[in-house]
Amino acid sequence: MAATDAPEARSPDEGTRPAPQADAARGALALSGDWTSEFGDTLERAARSLTEGATGGEAGAKGPVVLDLSGIGRLDTAGAVAIERARRAITARGAEPRIEGASRPHARLLDEVSQAGLELPEHTRTSPFVDFLVDVGRVMVDAGRDLVSGIVFLGEVVAALGRVAMRPWRFRGTSLVNQIDQIALRGLPIILLISFVVGAIIAQQGIFQLLQFGAATFAVDLIGILVLRELGVLLSAIMVAGRSGSAFTAEIGAMKMREEIDALRVMGLDPIEVLVVPRILGLVISLPLLAFCASMSAILGGGLVAWAYGGVSPDVFVARLREAIDLSTFMVGMIKAPFMAVMIGVIACIEGLAVKGSAESLGQHVTASVVKAIFMVIVLDGVFAMFFAALDF
Amino acid sequence: MDEPRRIDEAAEPPPGRDAIIRVRGLEVGFGEKTIFKNLDLDVYRGEILGFVGGSGTGKSVLTRAILGLLPTRAGTIEVFGKDRATITARERRDIETRWGVLFQNGALFSGLTVKENVQMPMREHRHLSQAMMDDLAMLKIEMVGLRPDAADKYPSELSGGMIKRAALARALALDPDIVFLDEPTSGLDPIGAADFDDLIATLRDTLGLTVYMVTHDLDSLFSVCDRIAALAEQRVIAEGPIETMLASDHPWLRSYFHGKRARAVANESA
Description:
heterodimer, B: alpha/beta, six-stranded mixed beta sheet
């Protein structure tokens, strides 16, 4: 191979290219073929046989060894690294390798590689048991921190609300209307649909079970109380946490990633006031409305099934319903809605603002937002159940 | 680099030089808008081609069209002698392992460390042992001038200049024949930009790279580019070494290469 600067042309069909080889001949190790990364394992085997040939052969592991590169076709960095590793291994075993016959571009590449450290930064090894304990500890500390940061954030939101109340002209009405449109109006069809289906299922099961006691009409009590106290608001809150909570986290998180939040801050705008307050207020207004619609839809679904499946005619259904429920049943459900809305909004916004620079981080926080919000909505529902039971409401 | 340009070797192309990329009669447009019409361009093996054009004339669009990220309306794009429109899936995959791309903002995978980013193409297209890939990744990271401890960092922990270098390391992962650089020195300070220019020239010499560089950086155009192609009026209006650009009468080229900033750079490098 003549000393030339022109890199040789590559032919893309791998099969016809000579594989890298190392052969012992006339006191020297002759390298031939293409030493390129396409050959993968073969390349690494050739490099190992180079080391073996130089140190394990007839001459033992002493004295100079010549690596003759004049027969090499193409050489890329993977090939150069393989040769360099072999050279270092041979040196480590006590022989003195010398590279000969390399063309100018090959020599330059080998030179570049031989100057590189090729060392990975040190990793400290730890035992899995200690790692486990560290993880458990970290989860506990994080949970505590979440609680504190949630309360701090809630305080900031209340403070921002106070500022807005002092200067109402700074309130972002358009943004609020947009949020209500997104949360309530666009979320309404799916929430109506699932509530209708759930109401129908409860009616069917209730009638089916109560029929054994000849008390099918009591299924109306079951539907009315269950839907108005618990299911309407719970279904809406879970749906909103999945639909709008995830959207909040993703929107705010993407803005955080692209430094838009910092841009707001340096322009003298408070991100809480601009981004968080309209969203949380939008939720607080929308969720009770959605919960009401969901309850009505569920009762309608239950009523239709009671009529078609249980033979309870609409006028009997309504009369029975009026006896079974009173205003407090309805209020228990509706009172919970704004609290759940604040919970969902605060969790979604905290997670959004916690997003770091990567797309992976955004995904993790959106997931965390939805999971935490749904979990907390259910916990809150349980707390309210105990509270109302204690009040006998 | 003690010798800033290699005029003797690369500036005067011998006739019939090996063109890695050959674009003929290309037309690209979006909806009603036509970006190029009848555009011709050659990129020769072993050269550093600087590609200039005003903002919004479609420099990135052309790069994306050559890379196959955009549909074309007419014309042919030959890469390594093969027409993009007629190649098989296998040939296309082969081509895609033979070029490296440095996107304007790096486009590093944010969920992977720098080292994993560099190893990603190796892992997908080559059968190498983990130890070999580690060595190779560290070599590329060192070659582009990053410190070894950057290898285990995530892209969000890197500065703008480091992201460019890390992205270049990934572009070089499979020892490509050609690298596409989209504004590689934008956002770097002058020292960092000059270092990057030197780095590209050094890599061209050690690895036998061909470099296609979209740039606005007059320093890069004067110091490392063997040839320059200028995009205006929906086509390549001029190509050739910097002298050709300076001698051109085209009004846009005159204002580009004879503006106040260009004169300062030209005087410096003269």
